Amino acid sequence: MNFFTPLDASTAAENALVPRILSQGCVRCPGAMALAEHCQSLYNLSLSRNRVFKRGETQVICQSAWMLDNSMVPDGTDVLGGALDVLCDLWFDPITEGNGFSAPFTDHAKNDTMDGIRALINNKNNYAPFRCNQEMCRRERYGISAVGSMADVEAASPESVYAAYQRMLARSRCEIFYVGRGGEGRVMETFSRAFSGISRGDILPLSTEVVREVQSVREVREEHPAQQSKLSLGFRTGTTEADGGRAVMLMLNEIFGSGPVSRLFMHVREKLGLCYYCSSSMDLIKGTMMVNCGIDAKKKAEAQAEILRQLDEIRAGAIADAELDAARKSLRSAIRQIYDEPTSLEMWWLGRMLSGRSVSPEEEIDHIESVTKDDIASAAQKILLDTVYFMEGTGGEVTDRA
Amino acid sequence: MRETALQISSLLGEMYYKIPHKSGLDIYVYPKDVSTTFASIAVNYGAADRHFRLAGEKEYTAIPDGTAHFLEHKMFEMEDGSDAFDYFAETGADANAFTSSLTTCYLFSCTEEFEESLAILLDMVAHPHFTEESVQREKEIIAQEIKMSEDQPSDALYYGLMQSLYRKNNQRIRVAGTVESIADITADTLRRAHSVFYNLHNMALFVCGNVTPEAVIEVADQVLTAAPEASFEVLREAEPAALAEKRFVQQMQVSKPLFCIGVKDIDISENPRERMKKQCIMDILNDVLFSRSSPFRNDLYENGWISSSMSYGFTHCLEFSHNVISGESKDPETVYEKYISYLAQVQKDGVDPAAFERCKRVLYANCVSSFDDASEICHNMMDTILDGEDPLDEPQIIASITLEDANRVLRSLFCEERTAMAVIMPIQNNKEADK
Question: What residue ranges define each of the domains in chain B, with the CATH number in brackets?
């Protein structure tokens, strides 16, 4: 069950707290232990508790449940029925106090979220791109974290999160996915009934601001006590999925910086030996691209120059036929693999719903076949470097044995 | 004559073929109707293999730490000087490799041109090619990999615990070695390691997906030549029951202290089926003791001693065995004390029968789900078959486990004398401390 809601500083933290609170218990299973016991009895019904992310400037609040198919249950337990009951109980019959959620549940959810925000620093591979994005989009809604800011989480109350929950049910676009061997009729019927008690108002409109110009490149440098330095380059791509540019951008990303035959891997890692990892990724709704690598502090200029040089070559159309073929084959394979994994299939369609372009995996493969070198070069010409984030490692570790 | 054997699980409705190939390589083919086909070839050679001797030799030869992992990187270099990734790119396969303490594994997934990709994989592992220059250049890349890993608090925590639990067992050793240890590696070191360990009798191939055994055999027939019997042994020192150290503490840039409590298991059966059974018993017990339904976990969380996420797991194979829980806490020593007293109490009271039945269901469901995905099936086959077991036996073994089994293992495994803790503390800011 996915709620699409505008990513906004005034609501992000409270929206993101909703699933954290609801997944702790409901009237029928009034606490984490009782709920966990019930889920274990249902052959390990697994519930997400904080599946919250952003795509473009849309905040997506998910509640997922993974379960064993009824045909594989040895004793006739109706796992699907049990799972639907649990989801409806959690989301439509939560524990409330006055006009708010349970105060202890709210405190737990806030503490867990704040722990998560603080712990971002623990993993530098993720922290550097997070900071780069935050700096690049500091004046856009995209710069807001999917779980909101520390201060907003701290300020949330049982009442304010409950109001966010009611607003979400009444006014957020909601997309429900079911992937399984059968039973979709039961799923449709269950959620139709559950939502029949909710009066749905005007649905909150979703939009994403796409920045296509850069005045000047911004450099941000921070020091951290680590052996390895991290370089993150943030770019504006100028092309989005809504522009119809998905296939060409996937090809560009594949050739430039995704996987072991990409330019970044072959040149920055293999030829120059500057790093163990160097790769690019894109948000095709926002129109941004990020390049991330881990390097020695003194190699920063060399790594940055090589990354930009490879992009320049693609801009100039210096793309070999073999590169083009390899990118097509790799994407074709990656797209076909989507059918083997329920969550991949869900994420595929969720992405298309957010972009407003209903393209099936097979149709996407056709689009990819038709992308030319010129298409890729033209798209690359629109890409602009916006922000250079450098986390300089200052080394040092302290070990103490008792 | 060695013949193809069909392994079947009537409980799961799953099956695979075991093919002892004439080259000496054991091949396992698991036909499955999915889009993606997955293949992996495993070499019985990992970071723990630090000394070997050939038949007839008296002395063991030492290999620099990190050699197995270094070799894994360099096996992608092809005889014509190109990179195996270029060949895989032509077939559209997504290739990768990894090294663990006991195994080196090369793998790919694909949705087309499977036979061509398999030929590349087999050719690549059978034919090493490296130059001194490329080995030197690889050192810079691996040095960055090592530094990245050393900056990861989760890795520091894991190795800190291994170095506390084990005195002799090579679980203590970082898979990639250290920047210092890999400095000694040359093209000759790698050639020697390849000639000793990359013997087809010391390897196994696992394939899962839309394939037939015949197709796999045909490629193997074309690419592989028969290998002589492997004739080497690796040095393994006996692990004493006692811990190396009770605590490991390191300061790193983390938001809150991280802890990892482990107990060394000294009761490892020679019988693979017994090992699989013990693994299943412990998987059930761990859920009883440490999942969100456990009173212990709930009490720690409700009272603010631990953060929401806590992980746990039992690792059990012929060479080593330990059980671990890890999480985040403002006060790891308090968590440790509560853990010790909780286990003493449960050992006295015995496992709650209702919790046991619930958690048995969890394990059954996890086992069934693990046969959904081709890559997971390959990894499972690799882990279980290389340890002498059969992955399809698992559902029957789970069904046979009783409450008495759980209580027996609970009372024999957990023991404070063999329990250690690794902790990563936030860096103490001296200026703050002076205030």
Answer: 5-234 (3.30.830.10), 247-434 (3.30.830.10)
